Amino acid sequence: METIRNLIDGDACDAESGSRLDVVDPATGAVYAEAPDSDAADIERAVEAARKAFPAWSETPAGERAAWLRRIADHIEGDAERFARAESIDNGKPVALARAVDIPRSVANLRFFASAVEQFASEMHQADRETINYTLRQPRGVAGLISPWNLPLYLFTWKIAPALAAGNTAVAKPSELTPMTASMLGDVCREAGLPAGVLNIVHGLGAKVGPTLTEHPRVPTISFTGGTVTGRDIAARAAPRFKKLSLELGGKNPNLVFADCDLDRAVSESVRAGFANQGEICLCGSRIFVEEAIYDTFVERYVERVKALRVGDPLEDGTDVGALVSAAHRDKVESYVELAREEGGTILAGGKRADAPNARCAGGFFFEPTVVTDLDVACRVQTEEIFGPVVTITSFRDEAQAIEYANATDYGLAATIWTENLSRAHRVAEAVDCGVQWINCWLVRDLRVPFGGMKQSGVGREGGLEALRFFTETKNVCVRVER
Ligand code: NDP
Fold first, then answer.
1. Residue 374 within a domain
2. Rounded Cα distance, 303 and 296, in Å
3. For residue 146, how far is its CA from the centre of ligand 1 (angstroms)?
């Protein structure tokens, strides 16, 4: 049994109450670790540690803060295989994916914001010879950072790196379902000698520790990635104190395939966009819309490719689709497939729990990659986030209808557009209400670009200088120059 600990004021510690939570390996269904079941008292200690550490950290030159982030990144990179295995065991994702994406991207997040803060500059405005305005951007204090289970270390570092780079201290809470790599990050920070209190990591149930953090009067900044319902709760709690808030929420992303696309590429990338990480990525293109002229061909080729995906033991190379994160989540996905049947859908692939790939995984939470057609665009399965290996395919008549269908949900995170017509690509990207648009590609990420959703998919933008601006307070200073 492995033991996960909080990081508070530089110490690896249990919850003050001594209470612990079971951590389950989704591939086997077995408890393999215990994590602190923290409560308000632990959050209080973490906030106090972060508050104490803030003056010295905020006055540390940006170059030195950057050096700390690089040191942490080097430690993770030097131990990448152990981190990748841990992420796979904790989350159920294929270890090959954790090796290729999650861990390298976590390292990149830390290095990117180390460099970004060294390049971070501010504006000066001079209207006449008598006045100069300049803009100060100062760290805001203790940042509360809350992240989900689907890309655990990747999204955790995506918040921690800019918060710390900009000179804030932090209290960070990973998902209780996937605490392992966050705990390992805490160990790395201690080994690297990061000053006590700069980063505090508190494990526990979101509903128990979350509100203490989001309502805390000494935490003026909250950055949250997770579901829309949780985001609404956090926004309501943060609003009375006028906290600065960044919310990266759910998605139900349209994937528009026009008849003039490169069909080979559109098919293979749309399979990846549907089922990477078991479909548990907020950016997954789970609503595919295909122009009538190529609908039958696309569906035939798509389904053939989906049926060839290998649902397997996450720890085996060659596994395309691992286990879903929990039994509860597997049940949720299953209930949506049942709903799809009730709503008149035709299941062309998958549709049920997958057989266990081997004896080790007999108790695991596996679900077959599932493709559903013949659903109304406005039905629940086509408009609610499933966040699993379930994709719907629907035909459209023309560009106007494609845009109408793309915008037919309350979400507005990411869209993918497949066309060789440059003007069409621009027109559709402008008309579709999503904060992220990919044309002839999917999940290509340049860390400098503004990232985030519209409508119910979030408020604010992360990434690049947007993140450094979010984690700093802007002050205008106007100076009269005596002549
Ligand atoms: P949740 O909203 O359930 O949880 C996210 C985090 O918030 C977890 O750490 C959770 O803790 C915590 N939490 C739960 N309740 C509260 C509360 N009342 N106050 C404060 N924190 C709380 O999301 P999931 O973990 O299920 O993640 C999946 C969701 O995240 C999907 O909707 C997905 O689309 C979205 N997401 C969005 C991304 C984006 O960039 N827009 C990227 C990735 C995912 P605990 O788990 O311990 O309950």
1. yes
2. 11
3. 8
